[in-house]
Amino acid sequence: MKFWLRDSIIASLFYSTTFFFWVVFIVPLEQDFLQTSGSLLYLPAAGRILPVLFFGIKTIPALFLTSLIAWNFFWPYDIYEARNIGLLISYLAILFAWAVFKYLDAEISFDSKLKLSNWRHLVLFILLCSLLNGLLDGAFYSTDVNIINPLISLRFFVGDVTGTIFILVFCMLMVSAFDIKRN
Amino acid sequence: MYKIFEILSFTIAFYLFLFVIWTIFITPIELSSNALALGSLLFLPHAARVLPVVYFGPWALFGIIIAEYICWFYIWPFEIFDRTGMGVLISSSAIAITWGFFKLLDAELKPFGNLQNTNWKHLVIFIIFSSLFNGLGNGAYYPTFGDGEAAPLISIRFVMGDIIGSLVVILFLAIFRKVTKDLT
Questions:
Q1: What is the CATH number of domain B2-179?
Q2: Which of A90, B9, B59, B115 falls between 20 and 30 A from A58, CA-CA?
Q3: Which residue of A has its CA nearest to B178?
Q4: Selection from A140, A135, A181, A179 nearest residue A158 by Cα
Q5: Cα nearest neighbour of B183 on chain A
């Protein structure tokens, strides 16, 4: 219970940080050409995928709650709105990807076949999560806003992949720069 | 089969990443002058064409073609210029030709070959050749078949943009590898 609470708080803080970095630095850059079909460098994707990888699926409730708060109370632009069901679908995509890896006996952890310390395995998980999120959210938003736009899926996928890799690279640099040890 | 899937996945992810970084951070700066229409001077995605082929082999070419089509036809948000399918094919072919050229001369880049992919000087030679082929091919194609007027500058800007963009990415990767070498 103590660890669940600790990990959930860290995961929520991580999501909030990526969300605010994205809102403050990336969205203004993209505003000139940002389409309603999604950001090309969606940093919060890292905020929801990486904590699940490192802390496990027990952090998903906290992450979902943080996403709801962030999108409903802190999103300052009118370009587009995220639907709560859309957010739920994003987390279901992660759960589904995690279940697929688990079913294939390929769960990613420090000591298993697919390792958290191996960038290739991380990228595979990120790709699967982004693909599922793009497909499912693309299907949902296309029907929800009554505009059939097949580009939504593709842009969600690209934005999630690039955003997550961007944050991963940034975190690796930070961990190395400050010589943070894993215990 | 798994290896091919892995190579394609990483190549596409790497290309998408560099393309988006270039689109968001470099292109808006270059847009202030109309010269971008003749080609970017810091075209980062060229590194995503060269490095996967050098490190993963020719299978990566398929990933490059897929990623180029996705990026240029569905992701590229500006109207300053449009890439055509043939232009994309020429860029990918430039890498294939360079790779074939090196292979023919028995100078394929491998960890322990005559030219080593761990030696940055050899890598730079590969980049220069591929950029030259790309610049010449696209420079010939766009003025002839594209909508724009004949502009000999296209070739030289393509070559410069590809070389500088690739070198910047390699430099970043080298620093990144050095900085994160203790991460396991």
A1: 1.10.1760
A2: B9
A3: A176
A4: A135
A5: A176
